[in-house]
């Protein structure tokens, strides 16, 4: 099993570039495609669909939000390659409650691309 195949929803990765953004695996579709979204700083008075607070992950030191507009799909192989090349490093796991909030916000965020809403519709909870 490759490094990428050990990944599950809620896994967090840190980009090793200058900005060092963190990416969370939001979901894994049946065909193995994984949806990753990153979080970024929330500016004062900014509105966001899914706000993450300090304490929800060690990498969250101030209010941040999930940037659904930049969410990306990767195959296991693509993610494993990013890990092998050192572009992404494992950075822990989000708790189930935070992950569920992110998954549900995917469908109400106005910036989430429609094709992602359709592809991950299995996440919708009644």
As a whole number of angstroms, the C-alpha radius of gyration is 14 Å
> What name does the CATH topology carry?
SH3 type barrels
Please give the share of residues in helix. 10-25%
State the CATH class: Mainly Beta
Query: Into which percentage range does the β-strand content fall?
Result: 25-35%
Shape assignment: globular
List the helices and strands and how they pair.
Blueprint: E1 11-15, E2 22-28, E3 34-41, E4 51-52, E5 64-66, E6 72-74, H1 76-84, E7 88-93, H2 96-105, H3 114-119
Antiparallel strand pairs: 1-2, 1-7, 2-3, 3-5, 3-6, 4-5
Walk me through this protein's architecture:
With 126 residues, the protein is an alpha+beta fold. It has a single domain (3-123), classed as SH3 type barrels. Helices cover 20% and strands 27% of the residues. It contains three helices and seven strands, in the order E-E-E-E-E-E-H-E-H-H. The protein has helices at residues 76-84, 96-105, 114-119; strands spanning 11-15, 22-28, 34-41, 51-52, 64-66, 72-74, 88-93. Strands 1, 2, 3, 4, 5, 6 and 7 form a seven-stranded antiparallel β-sheet that branches. The protein is globular. 28% of the residues are buried. The model is unreliable at 1-5 (pLDDT under 50).
Question: Outline of this structure?
Answer:
This protein is 20% helix and 27% strand. It is of the alpha+beta class and 126 residues long.
């Amino acid at each position: 099993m490759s490094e990428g195949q050990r990944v599950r929803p809620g896994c967090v990765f840190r980009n090793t570039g200058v900005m060092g953004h963190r990416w969370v695996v939001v979901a894994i579709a049946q065909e193995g495609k994984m949806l990753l979204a990153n979080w970024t700083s929330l500016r004062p008075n900014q509105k966001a669909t899914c706000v993450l607070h300090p304490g929800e992950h060690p990498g969250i030191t101030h209010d941040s939000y999930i940037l659904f507009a930049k969410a990306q799909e990767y195959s296991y192989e693509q993610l494993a390659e990013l890990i092998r090349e050192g572009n992404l490093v494992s950075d822990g796991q989000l708790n189930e409650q935070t992950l569920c909030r992110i998954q549900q916000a995917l469908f109400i965020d106005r910036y989430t691309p429609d094709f992602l809403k359709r592809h991950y519709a299995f996440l919708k909870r009644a």
